[in-house]
């Protein structure tokens, strides 16, 4: 006799048999929950499919990034020197070809309206991306106005540069700076001769909004009355930025509610801050 005891269990009580018989029951129990989640968050699942799965597949198949594919479409369908037509072409590409994750026409109307109301002489944009919002700002600049736009990603910046020049804006009017915002902001006054930003658009990564706003304050680049616009403050969201702006006592805050371009059911917003001064 060996030192091991073997116990024979009925087939119905065998662990593997139990797992096998319980799995369908567990699956059925969770099925209503899964269906509910799919229905409730169907817009987010669609967004995930478009921005991650389909985009990655097309990147691999074409060998080009989506911004490069969008620019190729613009080259063959838009009128050079016509910023409005270029913007409309990008909107059409995003709606009918590939979702571009750009600002879009609804938010663009808010930006254009505020540009007209404020008439800022100097504008700073953090997050050029493909150049969509850059063109909106450039079109609305007052005579003699200047726009500095900052993009961290060199490949995306190269596409935006070509789009900006295709629209007819030269470097004296629109200057694109490649680099991270935390490195560029401290050099704006000395290297780029920007002593003040009458309007700032934050359109890069929401988690960096608070840091960059405080950098702008620390380097006294915001004059009293300056406007700070922050995109995507509700989706994916910038809660710490909003909390700071509302509680620090230096800003008057307003939230413009919108939806994502081509996904209006996903609620987003643009925060509008008016700087009252260091206080």
| pLDDT < 50 runs, ≥5 residues | 1-13, 15-20
Write out the strand line-up for the largest beta sheet, numbering strands in chain order.
Answer: 3-2-1-4-5-7-6
Q: Approximately how much beta-strand content do the residues carry?
A: 15-25%
User: How are helices and strands ordered from N to C?
Assistant: HHHHHEHEHEHHEHEHHEE
Average of pLDDT:
90
EC number: 2.1.1.6
InterPro entries: SAM-dependent_MTases_sf, SAM_O-MeTrfase
Family: Belongs to the class I-like SAM-binding methyltransferase superfamily. Cation-dependent O-methyltransferase family.
Pfam family, one: Methyltransf_3
Structural commentary:
The chain is an alpha/beta fold. It is 51% helix and 17% strand. The protein has twelve helices and seven strands. A seven-stranded mixed β-sheet has the order 3-2-1-4-5-7-6, with helices on both faces. Helix 3 crosses helix 4, helix 4 runs antiparallel to helix 6 and helix 5 runs parallel beside helix 6. The longest helix is centred in the N-terminal third of the chain and has 26 residues. The chain is globular and about 65 Å long.
């Amino acid at each position: 006799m060996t030192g091991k005891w073997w116990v024979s269990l009925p087939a119905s009580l065998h662990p593997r048999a139990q797992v096998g018989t319980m799995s369908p029951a567990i699956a059925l129990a969770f099925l209503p929950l899964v269906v509910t989640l799919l229905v409730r968050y169907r817009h987010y699942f669609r967004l995930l499919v478009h921005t991650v799965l389909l985009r990655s597949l097309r990147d691999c198949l074409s060998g080009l990034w989506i911004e490069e594919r969008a620019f190729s479409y613009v080259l063959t369908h838009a009128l050079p020197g016509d910023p409005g037509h270029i913007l409309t072409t990008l909107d059409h590409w995003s709606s009918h070809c590939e979702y571009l994750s750009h600002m879009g026409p609804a938010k663009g109307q808010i930006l254009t309206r505020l540009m007209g109301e404020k008439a800022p002489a100097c504008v700073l944009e953090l997050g050029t991306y493909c150049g969509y919002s850059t063109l909106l700002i450039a079109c609305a600049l007052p005579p003699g106005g200047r726009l500095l736009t900052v993009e961290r990603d060199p490949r995306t910046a190269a596409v935006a540069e070509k789009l900006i020049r295709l629209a007819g804006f030269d470097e004296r009017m629109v200057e694109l700076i490649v680099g991270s915002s935390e490195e560029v902001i401290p050099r704006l006054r000395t290297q780029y001769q920007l002593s003040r930003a009458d309007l700032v658009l934050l359109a890069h990564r929401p988690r960096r909004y608070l840091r960059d706003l405080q950098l702008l304050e620390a380097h006294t680049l915001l004059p009293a009355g300056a406007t700070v616009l922050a995109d995507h403050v509700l989706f994916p969201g910038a809660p710490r930025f909003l909390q700071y702006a509302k509680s620090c006592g230096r800003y008057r805050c307003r939230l413009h509610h919108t939806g994502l371009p081509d996904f209006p059911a996903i609620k987003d917003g643009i925060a509008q801050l008016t700087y009252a001064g260091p206080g």
